[in-house]
Amino acid sequence: MTFVNVKPSEEFEFLNGQGHVLLIACGALAREIVDLIESNRWKAFDVACLPAKWHNTPQFIVPAIRDKIREAKGKYKSIFVLYGDCGTGGQLDKLLEEEGVERIPGPHCYAFFSGNDAFMAKQDEDFTSFFLTDYLARHFDKLIWAGMGLDKHPELLPMYFGNYKKIVYIAQTRDEELARRAMAAAKRLGLDYEYRFVGYGELASEMKDRA
Amino acid sequence: MSDEGELDLRSLNDEELTQQIHDDLYDGLKEEVEEGVNILLERGWTPYRTLTEGLVEGMRIVGIDFRDGILFVPEVLLAANAMKAGMFILRPLLAETGAPRLGKMVIGTVKGDIHDIGKNLVAMMMEGAGFEVINIGINNPVEKYLDAIAEHQPDILGMSALLTTTMPYMKVVIDTLKEKGMRDDYIVLVGGAPLNEEFAKAVGADAYCRDAAVAVETAKDFMKRKHNQMAASA
What is the predicted ipTM? Predict the structure, then answer.
């Protein structure tokens, strides 16, 4: 049972600069974060997003989060980081321990959207799966097809995706267009397709705990 | 970096042709690299010289520009494809002509992980540097590493992981080597985007290699040390 009213309220618009809890988040989560804030009318939060493209260059994530935390200290009652480990190899957790800041649990957003325990329980089945979230399904052409050079060099497809068997679209919202795009992405990549609606998962519960 | 329009590679002298091979490799032009390699061989270049001065040097430049953020993964993969094409021509000839061998490496991605782009680049560059490389692929449980070690008796064991959730498995492999009293028989190098030197030390590896170029230099250093030790104890 979900406590979240999934229809965004027209009367409550999120405006940065009024909260006392700073959320430092990956840009790929921005839409979901704002939707949760507006749907639940949470007034506690300000949001600072970092470039989603750093997914591919995680070495940029930790220094930038450090800067954001230090910039924010003294201005907010608390800071909460909405990143998984995201390929930082434990360096994000090391930074957060040094700075006394917590983050949402989980190795990455696929896990905390799905529910960390549920995601880990399927690891043996899923390790040959490539995950799409709403964000990745929406931006598949730009981020993955063109971003990886597949538009100009489709011969690279086996190098990138030759070891994968399936696209799993873990959907945050029930959006037919996004599901259609995710299925089309799987077809383009020559992979099987699975749809899993997960909603906002632990992103919602962790934000609620701090609202 | 390549000239536009048709260029007759045969009209270039050796120095120009070598430079053109570097440019064509940089641009991922597979057929042009193959043609350049064949022309150098026709001119009497040894396979080893063609490999090192043509292909390896060309990829070194690619590696530098990737590290500096000038080239990105797609360009590096295209360059690697071009280098692979050149090495396909040279490989049998290198064996025939007794090209120098620096050592042997078994390399694989760990259990539960199917990422292999970086690992395959390392394997290619290690081969280009003169190592014999046995690439055991992806999703390797410790038993597969042990089987490969038993069969091939390498000098170096290379492990790759791209996920924070799979990299701890490297410790399982290294601890198994220790339990079997084998750890000191092998140089263990680890790599992958979420790794770092601290992690490599914590799991008991000999070194963390942040990219293929570093892997090659690190491997060469360790092999030199190994040979020095062997010479000293002889």
Answer: 0.88
